[in-house]
Amino acid sequence: MAVSYVLVTAAAVVLIDGIVLGILLPRMLASSSHASRAASVAQQANADAKRLSVAAAILAAHLPAGTTSTRQLKELATGRETAALGLLATGNAAAGSSRRCLDARSAEALILPDGTVLASSNPAACPRGLRLGFAAQGGLDSQGSGSTARGAVVWAVSPVVKIPLSKIGAGILATGQSPSPAVSGLGGSPAPVRSSPAPVQSSPASAGSSPAGTPSPVRVHGLGVVLGGVYVQAPAASGSAFPAAQVRQLLVTGGLVLALVIPVGTVFGLLSTRRLIRRITRLAEVTGTVASGDFRPRVPVSGGDEISQLEDAFNRMAGQLSEAVDAERLRAGADARQAERARIARELHDSISQDLFSLSLLAAGLRKALRDTPALRPEVAAMERTAARAMREMQALLLELRPVALEDVGLVPAIAELCQAYQARLGIQVATELGQVALDPVTEHAVLRVVQEALGNAARHGQPDTILVRLGQQNGTVTLEVRDDGRGFDPQAIGERHGMGLTLMRERVAELGGDLRLDAAPGQGVAFLVRLPVSQDGQP
Amino acid sequence: MIRVLIADDHEVVRQGLRFVLAQEEDIDVVGECADGLRVISRLAAMRPDVLLLDLVMPGADGLAVLQAIQNGSTGWRPAVIVLTSFGEDERVIAAIQAGALSYLPKTTAVDRVVAAVRAAARGESVLEPGTAALLVRQVRDGGRAQPLDVLSPRERDVLAGLARGRSNRQIARALSVGEETVKTHVSSILAKLGLADRTQAAIFGLQQGLVPLDSALDDRSI
């Protein structure tokens, strides 16, 4: 059971883990697409370089013929055209970046052929005058990635070429944003340039526009003389991006968490189900005990959940079972006791009574046979008397053992019948004064037993001529009196043998809340007086 | 001489009776029998004047012997003194009705037994006071001489159950009493009516009309 709980818990954890990963992983993968970012940077550099190339062609027409390409580029950097593009020195970095989908950490710069930054959209990331040698190495047409003091970046550079105006088709002009107004704006104050000589890597300019003597970094592009380049740089990983290493780390962490979940889940499952399992185990144990016939144990009812309902129902069921079985056992016990009494009575009756009768016959025969032998006469007489007394006691005993069908006839007729039997069999005059009484069956039985016991005592020990049995009810008290005129005895001196029956009687009466009084004196008979309280509804 | 036959299944009792009666000069014990069938078969041969008869015997019991004597199948009619165990007084009526002259329990003083033998020889009865009282009450209360009158109302209910072929358990359930109580009632019924077993009791109940014969087996209530 505990194992299944643990498995369920673990499965739930795995499920949640899966959902979390399913939501996060695509975002991680999307933001970590390094290649796409590099491509967009290159694309931007290329597009802006083309625009500036067109602007440069237009500008060249307005500049004096001998203007150096560096000068041209500077003009371009400060020119209206560049501003119109929202680029570089306009200071309108925000507008530019929004247009180009670059964030604040990105930078776009116009660089000289040797890599020196001429103008920058983001001076903080890419200050003017900074020399980006690596960008110039690839002929101002390259891209790559690297790390700066501000973190990893991807970058791209694209050349700005001075194209002869004649080569610019209508198509190019049409795509450009009306370059003509920009030309009039040229000639603004030139920005100070800290120019450093760059090694000339390209062949001498074939366009022939560079004045002699001026060390001009001239590169020749397919279209014309290379004036400089547009450099675009962007952080390799933006704030929300997850680099691959981070993703891997996350996955490893997730795996570790998962590996921990199983044992932790096991322990948690065991702990959380321990009480439940203990209660069910206890219920199962008690059920087993009851099933095997012991109806005493009960389960403690705890809480108000379904299990406690089960416990409560079980307890009630066990209680009812127990009562039913007890009642059956009681009835069986009463039956068994009655059967046992009947068996003892039969045994006494069949064997000992016959022997006693035979004994008295032999004694009487002896007395007659020894008529002429006076010496033995007292012994024979004693023998005859003893046999007679034994028979008498046996009769009384058998009467006491006699089953009385009390529940059939009622208390008063049962007592009357009992008295009749004593009178008929023992020759004792039994007078009765029996009034109707209202008693419950248990008390009725007790009263009858007391009468039986008292009559038996009187018959066996007192040798009375008459016995009076009186039963009545007055003011909520039932009184029973059994009085004989026999020899009586000294209550202080009654021995164990006679005391036993009396003690039992007394206990029986006391159990029913009544009391038993014994009036006896030698030579004055014996009187039993029993008083039993009766409640209003007839129950004692 | 009074010729006496002793019929009792207890040897000690036969021995005692023989010894006592042997002391009397006018009494002659002509024989002893330990079972009822033997009594019935030998009565004609022994021709006793007085039969001292125990009611409880193997073979045929005392009542069967009395009935055999009464209907003449024994070929000899002695005066019968029933001398039976204490506690059989329910059978007094049945025994007297079956022809017993005297009825003495085995607690009777020995001299009274001897006196009863002499009385029986004269055709007279000797009864213990208790037995006499029982008979007096029977004559006074049961003048109609209905055999069922000896039964208590409850015993009649039980007998009706027997007549329907019920078991003790079934009767106990129907009367809401214990099985042992029913057993007591059945013993009492058999004793009072002088019947041998439940089958006889059932037949008796039907004979007496306690249960209508045609509905004895189909009515489930008592």
Textual characterization of the structure:
The complex is a heterodimer of chains A (540) and B (222). Chain A has 540 residues and is an alpha+beta fold. Chain A is built from 15 helices and eleven strands. In chain A, strands 1, 2, 3, 4, 5 and 6 form a six-stranded antiparallel sheet that branches. In chain A, strands 7-8-9-11-10 form a five-stranded mixed sheet, with helices on one face. The radius of gyration of chain A is 64 Å and the shape is rod-shaped. Chain A starts with a helix and ends in a 7-residue tail after the last strand. Chain B has 222 residues and is α/β, with parallel strands linked by helices. Chain B has two domains: 2-140, Response regulator (Rossmann fold, 3-Layer(aba) Sandwich); 147-215, Winged helix-like DNA-binding domain superfamily/Winged helix DNA-binding domain (Arc Repressor Mutant, subunit A), CATH 1.10.10.10. Helices cover 48% and strands 12% of the residues of chain B. Chain B is built from ten helices and five strands, in the order E-H-E-H-E-H-E-H-E-H-H-H-H-H-H. Chain B has a five-stranded parallel sheet with strand order 2-1-3-4-5, with helices on both faces. In chain B, strand 1, helix 1 (11-22) and strand 2 (27-33) form a beta-alpha-beta unit. Chain B is elongated. The N and C termini of chain B lie far apart (56 Å). In chain B, 47% of the residues are buried. At the A-B interface, helix 10, helix 11, helix 12 and helix 13 of A face helix 1, helix 5, helix 6 and helix 9 of B.
